[in-house]
Amino acid sequence: MKKITVIGTGYVGLVSGAGISDFGHYVNCADKIESKIKLLQQGEIPIYEPGLDDLVKRNVSTGRLSFTTNVDEAIQTADVIFIAVGTPQGENGEANISAVESVARAIGKNLNNYKVICTKSTVPIGTGDRVCELIRETMPKGGVFDYVSNPEFLREGSAVKDFLWPDRVVIGATSERAFDIMRDVYRPLYVNEKPILHTNVATAEMIKYAANAFLALKISYINEVANLCEKVGADIHQVAKAMGQDGRISPKFLHPGPGYGGSCFPKDTEAIAALSRKKGAPMHTIDAAIITNNEQKIKMTEKLKKLVDDDLTGKTIGVLGLAFKPNTDDVRESSSIDMIQSILDGGGQVHAFDPIANESMKKYFPNLKYFTSWKEACQNTDAVAIMTEWNEFRGLSLDTLKTIMKSPIILDTRNILSIEKLIEYGFRFDNVGRLKIQ
Ligand code: UGA
User: Fold this and answer.
1) How far is the CA of 325 from the centre of ligand 1 (A)?
2) 339-382 pLDDT, tens per residue?
3) Catalytic annotation on 132?
4) I want to staple 157 with a disulfide (CB 3.0 to 4.6 A). Which of 5, 327, 415, 429 is the partner?
5) Ligand 1, residues 48, 89, 219: which to mutate, most atoms within 8 A of Cβ?
6) What are the pLDDT digits (tens) for 390-407?
7) 186 Rama class: left (phi>0) / alpha (psi -120 to 50) / beta
8) Is there a contact between 34 and 10 (Cβ–Cβ < 8 Å)?
9) pTM for this structure?
10) Domain ranges in the chain?
11) Fold classified for 209-290
12) Is the CB of 253 within 6 Å of ligand 1?
């Protein structure tokens, strides 16, 4: 079994670390943020991710998973080091890799024997060369290492499942020795005949960006089709269903909505678009997907305004769902941020509720009224906007909603409510790309 260190305990680092320990290896998750490591050492998980709690507990109890702030020691004792620190959006849309660079320097300084250095963070194509250069600059004379790019395809909200049962594992490695070690890290998947793709480093880095950008493009495409459906009296769900039945298209990521958010698509599309311009091979399709997505978020705010007769002044709007998607407490780039801001700008008040993400949204809007149930949040509201398709909103009682609201007006940006029921209960409503009665 290998000794593995994962540096960075965000979504990717923590899920990967816990997942790799579940494969039977000894994993030390290192982070310089003391408060985070302290929580983890006390058995608490700093993020909401279904199944992660159990996965961490199970592996801590067998002694295969531990947490430390001593990054230097964690590097020295490892056979394989995963870099899983953040790469936030920097200037001109390009990803900022300064955290990756500082980890590379720390690895160089502590390179006491042969190690495989593997990047899991989403990094611009070419970062592998930069990491190797920094390690070489800082390592002791005679230091030896191999570099690998092993991008992660996990989704927030189903990250544990995605890690333990991936569609494929991509290993960008030029050295056979490093590839064999990495295949060993993923042995249970390899034994189960999950595809393990061996590529060079640049190809692995490119696969990650190309996959995310394609999915974002697919969402922007279906959102535009939905907007056109509204103009011609077509129903987007039937259109998307029939499109998805064509095996070449696939039904996934064809769900229209208020625009994609999260920590990946907005940042990664900007990054690949910026890179493509820099390299003289501009990706106009991705530029378009970004524009469409920004416009989609604005369109939702316009829909709400229209529902309240273009006057938000003094109106109270219930915003249900703050997370950028269900099963996560992450609100980064969530379309609910645009919605809330536009209500406030229009002179309205927001009653916000999310089953998990109220606390996260307080960092953006500390002065909103936050509630602990949808019923409380919708009490005496002039309209309600559903922003995230949490299961509990799918089942909300329109009968109850109608009696507690001041006026029965609802914007369903995720198309989760039954149009028949909305009509039956006399709601004035709007959605994305479907029939509306106003
Ligand atoms: C995304 C990718 O799906 C993962 O494969 C990738 O590993 C991850 O980024 C990453 O780079 O780390 P994630 O951002 O967690 O995962 O979330 P998604 O499930 O992809 O959803 C992103 C956004 O698209 C959400 O706002 C969601 O509501 C929206 N979406 C998704 C739609 O509007 N329609 C759809 O049909 C699907």
Assistant:
1) 8
2) 999 999 999 999 999 999 999 999 999 999 999 999 999 999 99
3) no
4) 327
5) 219
6) 999 999 999 999 999 999
7) alpha
8) no
9) 0.94
10) 3-199, 209-290, 298-430
11) N-(1-d-carboxylethyl)-l-norvaline Dehydrogenase; domain 2 (1.10.1040)
12) yes
